[in-house]
């Protein structure tokens, strides 16, 4: 009888151990498959750079860049919108913008970067926007490792992300030759992510002066953890 009880006890311990191990594995797998999603909510033209034509030809380019603990790029996702003629007071809502996402690394951080530019060469910019959106989906595949330490501005971060996705910097550098209306990077540190906060709303104001024309744009986007 004692042998039967001992055998039953051992089986019970084994069952509990397997269940516990399975639970730990499931939690680990769940942690490994978290994603961050980037969605533009709205872009508003409050004041224009081009007062003579009463419209700005603008492009919004944005990227998610995942970095490991050594500040190396391990994954990117890119999106772009435009070329759009924006009039004073005009609001473009989120359904016009491509949603991008990538898998969150276990260590390191994710950068969300945006650049807003006023375009002079419509055809070339339109072609580049199309290319970014076509290649951007493929960039969810782990990209080549790139050190990001030398890229200090949001504009440079977007260029690095495009390069990692297979879009050469020579193609992207034309944005730098156009009028930069605004740029921004938000750091999402992996260690600060918790189950309590799944949404990160980012509200930005881009304003400045060019040829005595004062421009002002309001951009709202959201990062969602899922």
Largest sheet: 5 strands, antiparallel
CATH architecture descriptor text of the largest domain: Sandwich
Mean pLDDT: 80
Strand content: 35-45%
Determine the fraction of residues in helical runs and give it as a percent range. 25-40%
CATH topology of the largest domain: Immunoglobulin-like
**Elements, N to C (H/E):** HEEEEEEHHHHEEE
Tally of individual domains = 2
CATH class of the largest domain: Mainly Beta
Helical/strand content category: alpha+beta
Poorly predicted runs are: 6-13, 19-30
Helix count, DSSP H or I runs of 4 or more residues: 5
Query: Could you tell me how far the N terminus lies from the C terminus, measured between alpha carbons in angstroms?
Result: 52 Å
Note the overall shape: globular
CATH superfamily of the largest domain: C2 domain
Please compute the radius of gyration using only Cα atoms.
23 Å
The tally of strands reads: 9
